[in-house]
C-alpha cells in the first residue's frame, strides 16, 4: 500500500529535520521558533488519516499471517494421510498432539519438533492440545478429518468463534472431551451448536467474555448435553481434561 510508505518517508524527513534542530546549536527561544518546532506526536496528529491507513495496513498484514498459519496441506495429506496432516498443522501452530498408544508430541522453545510421527500414517490422533493457537474457521479443516479424535483443547484461542463451533458436528462420533475456556469470541450461539456432540463427557465453557449470562448458559448446556459434565465458573475446582495431558 503506497499511503503508509509515503507517510513513513514523509515522517522520517519531518522528524529528522526536527531532530537536527533539537541536537544542534541552541537558538534563542522565541514564540516563532516554538511554533516551528513540532513534536512527532503533533506531526502524527496533523496526518491522522495517514496513521489510520497505516493501522489498516498492519491489520491486513496480521490477518494474512493468520490465514497463512491456517492453510491446508493437500500434498502432505495425499502422501501421509489426514492424521499426520492434522498433527503437522497443530505442531506448526505451537500446539501438541497425541497419537493412539504414543507419547505426547510438542514443539520445543524454538518451535522445532521431532518428525517420527510422519511414519504414523496408520495410527490415529486421539488428543489435540491447541491452547492459545491461532486456529480459525479455515484451519478447522485440518482437524475435522481426525475421525478418532477423543480430546480437543481450544483454550484461549483468539480466533475460535461461533462459526468454528458450528463445524464440530463432524467429530460427533468420537469427541468426548472439549475445552473452550477463555475463547473471547465464543458466545451462546456457538455453544448451541454443540448439541450435536452427544458423546461428549466433559466440556469446559469457563471464562467466556462473550457469554452474557454464564450461569444460565451452563444450565442450558447441561440440559442440552445430559450425559456431559459441564464446567463453568467453578472449573478450577473440577477435574482436568485427560489425566495424562501435558
TrEMBL record:
Tree of life domain: Eukaryota
InterPro entries: LRR_dom_sf (IPR032675)
Coiled-coil residues: none
SUPFAM superfamilies: RNI-like
Similarity annotation: Belongs to the ATP synthase subunit s family.
Quaternary structure annotation from Swiss-Prot or TrEMBL: Interacts with incompletely assembled mitochondrial NADH:ubiquinone oxidoreductase complex (complex I).
Physiological role: Required for the assembly of the mitochondrial NADH:ubiquinone oxidoreductase complex (complex I). Involved in the assembly of the distal region of complex I.
Protein name: Distal membrane-arm assembly complex protein 2
Organism listed in the record: Cricetulus griseus
Amino acid at each position: 500500500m503506497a499511503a503508509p510508505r509515503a507517510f513513513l518517508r514523509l515522517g522520517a524527513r519531518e522528524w529528522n529535520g526536527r531532530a537536527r534542530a533539537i541536537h544542534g546549536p541552541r537558538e534563542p527561544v522565541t514564540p516563532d521558533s516554538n511554533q516551528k518546532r513540532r513534536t512527532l506526536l503533533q506531526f502524527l496528529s496533523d496526518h491522522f488519516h495517514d496513521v489510520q491507513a497505516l493501522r489498516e495496513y498492519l491489520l491486513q498484514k496480521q490477518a494474512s499471517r493468520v490465514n497463512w498459519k491456517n492453510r491446508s496441506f493437500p500434498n502432505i495429506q495425499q502422501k501421509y494421510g489426514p492424521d499426520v496432516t492434522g498433527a503437522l498443522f497443530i505442531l506448526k501452530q505451537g500446539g501438541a498432539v497425541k497419537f493412539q498408544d504414543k507419547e505426547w508430541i510438542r514443539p520445543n522453545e524454538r518451535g522445532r519438533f521431532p518428525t517420527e510421527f510422519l511414519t504414523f500414517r496408520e495410527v490415529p490422533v486421539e488428543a489435540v492440545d491447541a491452547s492459545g493457537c491461532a486456529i480459525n474457521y479455515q484451519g478447522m479443516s485440518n482437524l475435522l478429518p481426525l475421525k478418532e479424535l477423543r480430546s480437543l483443547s481450544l483454550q484461549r484461542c483468539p480466533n475460535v468463534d461461533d462459526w468454528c463451533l458450528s463445524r464440530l458436528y463432524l467429530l460427533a462420533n468420537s469427541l468426548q472431551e472439549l475445552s473452550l475456556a477463555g475463547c473471547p469470541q465464543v458466545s451462546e450461539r456457538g455453544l448451541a451448536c454443540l448439541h450435536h456432540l452427544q458423546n461428549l463427557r466433559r466440556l469446559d465453557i469457563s471464562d467466556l467474555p462473550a457469554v452474557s449470562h454464564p450461569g444460565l448458559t451452563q444450565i442450558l448446556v447441561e440440559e442440552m448435553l445430559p450425559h456431559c459434565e459441564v464446567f463453568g465458573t467453578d472449573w478450577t475446582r473440577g477435574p482436568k481434561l485427560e489425566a495424562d495431558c501435558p
